[in-house]
Structures are given as structure tokens and as C-alpha cells.
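This part of the workshop introduces the protein records we will be handling. An example says more than a description, so a record of this kind follows:
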Amino acid sequence: MKDYKNVTVFDHPLIHHKIAILRDERTSMKDFRELVEEITTLMTYESLKNGVPTIDVEVKTPLENCTQKMVEDDAVVIVPILRAGLGMVNGVHALFPLAKVGHIGMYRNEETLVPETYYCKLPDGIENKLVIVVDPMLATGGSAIDAIDHLKKIGCKNLKFMGIIAAPEGLSKLAEAHPDVDIYVSTLDRCLNENGYILPGLGDAGDRLFGTK
């Protein structure tokens, strides 16, 4: 896969460790859910170290007053792509507890592998916020591309995407479709199989998060 300026693939030992457990078919639903949240928090810390809206505030310490930067209230909106994206929301909230949450619901047509939207509910004023789109698996890239397309149509300009595991095919498509969006993934896997699943992957993230088949 070619290098893209808007793509960051993390190389962090803690993330690698947690993904190894996440992939294991023996990992329980509870542990799987907790690992997704923990990985997301690590990703959020790294990916938002630049570009988060801040304001200067006056703070009185026990010794004197000082000026300190703080994250601006109501500056961040999390948009999970349903349903697996829900598993990443708490991981972002761990660092941005006041972030509002929008939802975009998509499902993959198993015949065409094309995503189809069935639900969309977004906070008022989202176009003026830093919007973090989250989905654990970036496979074909179709859902992420369509979700970001929709957000841009309603006026969102400051967008980031975070995914835990990506296939080269989907990552390339997303990077080329939205070169102005910063894309962060924890690991880049080998390829997609004939059914559009990531290899080696971890199976269906939504099923493993919510105990469904």
C-alpha cells in the first residue's frame, strides 16, 4: 500500500498487546468490549494531541495566578458508525467526557458489499465541532466514506476517523476519497477475503461486542 499523508498507523507496544488479546477467539464478550475501549482511549490520546480546540483560562494556584490552556467545552462530537462503532464511544469519553454523540447507522449488503444507511441522528451545531468518526473495522471502506460524505454535506469541516483494524483496500479507498481527513488505525492487516472480511482480523466486531450471531 502506498504512503498517504493523512494516514497514521500506530506502532505502540501497549496497543499491539491489547490487539493480540482482542483477536483471540477465546476472548470473552466482556473482555473484548473492555479492550476495544482501552485501545480507543490510547488512540484518542495520540490522535488528538494536535488540533483539539482549546481556550486560555486563568487559574489560581496556592501560590499565584497563571494562564492555562483547557479543552473548549462542547468542542468534540463522537460519531460512531452503528453498530460496532458504539464499542469505541466510551474510549473517547474517557478523555472527553463532555463530548456529544451522533449516530450513523449502516449495514453491509451481503450480496453487493455496499453499505446502506438506515439511521442518522446528529447533535445540533455539529458542523462547528471537531468530529471524530469511529468504527473498529475498516474493511472495504464504504461505510466510512459514506458517513464522512454525509457529514461534509451538512457542513462539517474538521473531521477525523479512528479505526482499530484496517485492510489495505479500505484504508486506501478512504484516504483517497477524503484526503483532507486525518485517519488513524491501530494496525494494518493483510487483505480482505472473498466475503469482504479482514484477514487475519478478529471476526465480526459487532457480534463480539454485543454477543450476537
